[in-house]
Amino acid sequence: FSGYISQVLKNYTDHACDGEYVSLRCPHRTTISIQSSFYGRIVPSHQMCPSRYPHSYATLIKEDVACSVGTSLQKMLDECQDRRSCQFLVNSRLFGTDPCPGTGKYLIVWYKCRPNEYKSKVACEDDKLRLSCKKSMVIAIYSAIFGRTQGGSLECPYQNLGMPMIECQSATALQLMTKRCHGKRSCSIYASTYEFGDPCYPGIQKHLNVIYTC
Known about the structure:
- By secondary structure, this protein is α+β, with helices and mostly antiparallel strands.
- Helix content is 17%, strand content 35%.
- The protein has 2 domains: 2-115, Rhamnose-binding lectin domain (RBL) (Jelly Rolls, Sandwich); 119-213, Sandwich (Jelly Rolls), CATH 2.60.120.740.
- It has 5 helices and 12 strands.
- This is EVA1C protein.
């Protein structure tokens, strides 16, 4: 169980140079959740993905180290999101127009493994959040946010409409929820600044949003 939890909570990173296969894989009962993606080149080839061209040709062409495409995240979502595993060959044709022909590029992908069946619970500020699982099952926390998100929360409408829409979140919410609920059949916590600290300006209403599985 602890191995499963650590795999679910872990942030994975994978990378592949042009002409190599990128391969993402998640453990049983979880699927890929793409967090971020980059395709292009922002470091010289002696640091990452050496040039495939002969040295004499490589010296003639000035390598572009400020090269990226804006389509890499969408491409990764199309290829891999919500699948248990995915694999494909990396080359510039996949991502549309080549922004820097003659420069060897690479793909870096950041992803998590999300449980196939998960629940979401919200508690408004100062309310109690209680999580529980059926007999013989225990809680595995996937994510936890305490603060105020850009879209707000339907369950906790904000009264202070004069406040600017600023996103503010506690950096320790996931760590605290994991410590309080990890491996337990049930747990409860108040969605309060006493527990999580106050990541926002004074007067801004906050909420706690937890995604978990049993």
